[in-house]
Amino acid sequence: MSTTRIEVKDLVVRYGDAVAVNGVSFTVGSGEHLTLLGPSGCGKTTTLRAIAGLEQPSAGSIYIEGQAMYDAAARRNVTAEQRGVSMVFQSYAVWPHMTVFDNVAYGLRVRKKSAADIKAAVERALDLVQMRHLADRGASKLSGGQQQRVALARAIAFSPTVVLFDEPLSNLDAKLRAEMRVELRELQRRLDITSVYVTHDQEEALAISDRVIVMNVGVIEQIGAPQEIYNRPSSRFVADFVGSANLIKGKVTSPGTFEAEGGTILKTVGGTSGNEVAVRTAYIDLVPQPGDNQLPGTVRQRMFHGDFVQYIVECACGRVIVRRPPVNLLDEGAPVTLSFSPEHTVLLQG
Amino acid sequence: MNMKPRFNWQPVVSAAVIVVVAFLVLLPLVFLVEESLNVGDPMAFPPQEYGFRNYIAMFDEDINVLFNTVIIAVVATIMAILIGFTLAWILTRTNVPGRELLERLMELPYYMTPLVGALAWSVIAGPKSGFVNQIWKAWGGSGDIVNVYGYFGIAWIMALFEGTVAFVMISASMKSMDPALEESARVMGASKLRTMLTVTLPLVMPGVLGATLFVFAEMLGSFAAALVIGIPARIYVITTAIWDSTLSYPPDYGRASAMGLSLFVVMFAMLTFYRWRINKGSYATITGKAFRPRPMDMGKLAWLLLGVCLLYVVLAVVLPLAALIMTSLQRFATVILSQAEWTLANYQTALSLGPIRGALGNSLMLGFGVASVGVILMALLVWIIYRSRIRGSGAIEYLVMFPQAVPRLVFGLALLWAWLNIPIPIYGTLWLLALAYLTVMLPLGVRTLAGVVLQIDKSLEECARVCGAGWAYQMRTVTLPLLRPGILAAWLLIFMACVRELGTSVFLMGPDARVIAPSIVSAFASSGTELTAAMALIQTATVVVALVILFRLTRGVTKEMS
């Protein structure tokens, strides 16, 4: 496969007796933007650091551009500085004793480029993040958002083919984070880079990736495109962690049909066995549609959120959360019939 | 580039470091334990007869020494905590004018040694010729109005010095208290006073108790004031009793060792208890986050509080230094200016008299040498303890910090006995002093350097590697430039501590290897106060120069970091 840039196979990383990453395998295609998503302690950062060469794995292999960077069987481990990848750190790791220019020029100076080349490349990188006017400023005098941009410029200045991102936006406030997400996506498109991105923010993961890997306790739960992860969660963990979903208990009566607690029969997609279905709160309609699964109930609580309204509806199978656009509001206590497509009724593999 | 199956050197390095540090830190104490059980000929090694007579004798014959020790330590601790609490409250909770400058000034007493303080107060408040008594007589008074040569005098000098330690500890606990805790009491309807009694005090109490315990332990082991003031007044405490029993003929090392070990055990237990309390963190006010509580508006009273702060600085620093300067510039010290005969002869003598000059030179040389070698060794230790993932790094850390719990004097005694009996002839030379200084400075240096190393985010180094830099390039361009201010600060602190060192030096100094602090003590006992004052001031001046550089440096660093 000539289009595979990174290949991680059966990777295991141990810290003493604890296993941080327990047999993880995936590939990243050329130009692809892959995100490792999961709660803290799920092994996503450890996996990323192993790719960078900052953690010593104990088994498995990591290949970049077909070259073995780590291979337990061949007892091969290339040091971080010789892997040729680049990385943006969570803490930015902008060197406080250097100017912005010196920070960005570091990777180029290590590679012994000529002064003119360095100047051109640094200015190009600073332009991309709109920081050129601060080139001579000491790095310790920058705001968080500016440090973030410098870290980004430094990571791309020496034209690496692979850039690793370790929760780069987690220290920014919500508004700036949303802005930077847009810029990052734009930057990824403009530069021909392959990126592996780590985050615990599911919204961010869905927004900026071509493909998402959901991890939990050191193993991969699901790999897929953002829509796939959202629409067809394969496990309770994924349904719960990514987006907001109702989990309805019950049992499978025949392939494709599910009897929820309280006796309602639902048509389902997804797995073949299990005792729970997931229904996204955004996919539930309050007006019955033909061909849909339907659940009668009563509105218990209405909360107005601005961008949406959240209802808690008491049904025979328990409480169901519904999010609708803030129009045609229902009152608390009103009877209602919930309606959702079988396509969005996903049986979770149990 | 390849991960070849190579020799795993980590356990070897780790074991080697543990052995060397244990040799420096623990071995002397082993000798001390053995000698304290020696009831035969005290000079024989190994002992011909073992027993507990030395310990029993301590309670039998020296019970008054133990009594003195406790009385003085209790009185001094109460005074020091009162000083510390008052200053901490003024500087963290009130709008006293010039707060930031004052906070800096409060550190000064710490850099005055207790030895200098004791000399100065004997000049100020000694009987007959003390300055205060001179003035009293000039005004027509009779007899002495003050006399520092007593229990209270010793405690007073110790309290002035330790007051700043108490201040730092108590104000840290006041600063780390979330102001919201008090504000919520106010919102619930509690008055200022009620808030103070029901919320503030209970929250600050653990900090105050911790400081009390720590200061009391330090008081038990303090030596300089008891040496300068206590011996002429015939008031012996345990440290001076240890010192005294090594001076008798034949020197009673067994008795000294028993007393030293007992002192060590008591202090060690107290400090361990203190650390355990702190680590338990039963009060969640200590979040490590520094709050700046909203200061209370004191109105005109703020100026009075300013006066209280300045009074402490005057008593602990300005007055002692002024008295010493005045003394050092006269032929016969007097505060009645019309009778004064001004002269620079004392400085001339101090700088030209062979033994004194030699002692000063040796101290400076030891300071330079130990600081320079020490900083490299300690940086290495810090890296091994905190950055390498070596097995046994916890044990190394514990060993390195151990000398902190041993009173200097006891450590000096232990080294003396150890090196009298280890067949390497460095006793009585500067080499042993250097080795001793290096060992007792370990906690200071390692703590200072660790503070800097731990502040440096690991990803700053990792980022350099990912950018393609090799280990050496990364060290040169990232790690060392970031560490430089910390390394310089550690160097200066060690240098200062070496030039001031007294407790260990008194035992290890030889006729050909004199150092300044013990020389000042013996000059005080044998020649005049005037010459002693000049010597003490020369020593202080060296420390001040280092201190000025240090302040410059740390201010630059904090500016750069913020």
N-to-C span of chain B = 40 Å
User: Overall 3D geometry of chain B?
Assistant: globular
Q: What is the distance, rounded to the nearest whole angstrom, between the alpha carbons of the first and last residues of chain A?
A: 34 Å
Radius of gyration of chain B: 25 Å
Protein model, in words:
The complex is a heterodimer of chains A (350) and B (562). Chain A is of the alpha+beta class and 350 residues long. Chain A has 2 domains: 4-231, Rossmann fold, CATH 3.40.50; 244-347, OB fold (Dihydrolipoamide Acetyltransferase, E2P) (Beta Barrel), CATH 2.40.50. Helices cover 24% and strands 36% of the residues of chain A. Chain A is built from 8 helices and 21 strands. Chain A has helices spanning 44-52, 100-110, 115-128, 144-157, 174-190, 202-208, 226-231, 236-241; strands at 4-15, 18-29, 33-37, 59-64, 67-71, 76-77, 86-88, 162-166, 194-199, 211-216, 219-224, 245-254, 257-260, 265-267, 269-270, 276-280, 293-304, 309-315, 318-324, 335-340, 346-347. In chain A, the strands form 4 sheets. Chain A has a 6-stranded mixed β-sheet, with helices on both faces. Chain A has a 6-stranded mixed β-sheet with strand order 14-13-12-16-21-15. In chain A, strand 5 (67-71) and strand 6 form a beta hairpin. In chain A, helix 2 (100-110) crosses helix 3, helix 2 runs parallel beside helix 4 and helix 3 packs across helix 4. Chain A is globular. Chain A starts with a strand and ends with a strand. In chain A, 42% of the residues are buried. The mean pLDDT of chain A is 91. With 562 residues, chain B is mainly α. Chain B folds into 2 domains: 63-342, MetI-like fold (Orthogonal Bundle), CATH 1.10.3720; 344-562, MetI-like fold. In chain B, helix 10 (179-187) runs antiparallel to helix 11 (192-220) and helix 16 crosses helix 25. At the A-B interface, strand 6 and helix 2 of A face helix 21 and helix 22 of B.
